[in-house]
User: Which sequence fits this backbone?
């Protein structure tokens, strides 16, 4: 299937109005490219893996709309075959009208043709098998090499929920889990994403795992990854809920029943989570945190100590930090 990509160069302040306007004429599902930093609200909803601060916002935005191209070269627009020139003219007319009362920047329109694309699988070329110490992480479309068949292997595909093991914060958590997990460990993963940390804990001998997340995609992703790794549903439970503020979620998770709690979340969220999570930890339980950019280390350490936990270890990878503590 081929697509025409219609790209408009505009400014970030005009993104929403342009998307709304073009939606009304039949162009749906815009791809937005800009350098606007994440807001505090955005960050509260995200559970790594995310990158540190990106380039400075220059106010420029590119909005791309994709229209299916028919075999005869026409475009499938609002269920009918339509000439490309007709669609572009409509777009330009709408942009010109917007310019009468709104600054939309250049407002230029560029049309390009994509290759035949499998939109679901196109990204697979960027994700390949790799090692985290003794653990081989491999996607479903790659084969395990003969020399690796006796290794411990995690099968996982990138998807709509975070967590493939590639990010430094995830690897920091994995190493700490391996260090403290035993055959009697019950582990809670706050912000579980793809379920990778709970699955790995079970692979290394944990008794049971539970995960919470704000994104409903986490349940589907975790169940899919459990299945391909031979993890039974009885050993890993996932639920949607905000453990920080929702008492019902706290009750459902349970109190003083986890040997390990792991939270691979942003530092500002860890500050809010830590005084709550001490209630879920058993006495002597281990609290593993990451998602902490290096200049936030002190903030998290202070929050951990203020919650009455003893800091056991601080580990580093790249510019990321993991703080491991214990409930005395």
Assistant:
């Amino acid at each position: 299937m081929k697509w025409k990509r219609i790209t408009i160069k505009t400014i970030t302040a005009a993104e929403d109005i342009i998307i709304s306007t073009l939606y009304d004429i039949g162009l749906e599902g815009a791809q937005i490219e800009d350098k606007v930093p994440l807001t505090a609200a955005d960050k509260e909803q995200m559970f790594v893996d995310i990158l540190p601060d990106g380039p400075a916002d220059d106010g420029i935005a590119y909005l791309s709309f994709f229209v299916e191209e028919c075999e005869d070269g026409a475009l499938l627009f609002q269920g009918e075959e339509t000439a490309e020139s007709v669609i572009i003219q409509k777009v330009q007319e709408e942009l010109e009208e917007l310019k009468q009362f709104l600054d939309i920047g250049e407002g230029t329109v560029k049309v390009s043709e994509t290759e035949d694309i499998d939109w679901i699988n196109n990204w697979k070329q960027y994700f390949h098998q790799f090692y985290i110490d003794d653990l081989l992480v491999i996607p479903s479309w790659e084969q395990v090499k003969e020399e690796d068949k006796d290794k411990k292997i995690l099968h996982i595909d990138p998807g709509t929920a975070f967590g493939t093991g590639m990010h430094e914060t995830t690897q920091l958590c994995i190493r700490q889990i391996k260090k403290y997990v035993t055959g009697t460990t019950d582990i809670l993963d706050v912000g579980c994403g793809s379920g990778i940390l709970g699955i790995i804990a079970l692979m290394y001998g944990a008794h049971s795992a539970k995960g919470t997340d704000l994104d409903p995609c986490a349940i589907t992703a975790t169940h899919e990854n459990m299945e391909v790794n031979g993890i039974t549903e009885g050993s890993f439970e996932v639920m949607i809920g905000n453990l920080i503020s929702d008492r019902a979620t706290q009750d459902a998770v349970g109190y003083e029943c986890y040997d390990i709690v792991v939270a691979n979340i942003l530092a500002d969220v860890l500050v809010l989570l830590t005084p709550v999570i001490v209630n879920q930890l058993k006495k002597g339980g281990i609290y593993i945190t990451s998602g902490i950019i290096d200049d936030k280390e002190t903030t998290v350490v202070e929050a951990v100590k203020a919650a009455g936990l003893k800091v056991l270890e601080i580990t580093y990878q790249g510019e990321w930090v993991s703080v491991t503590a214990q409930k005395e």
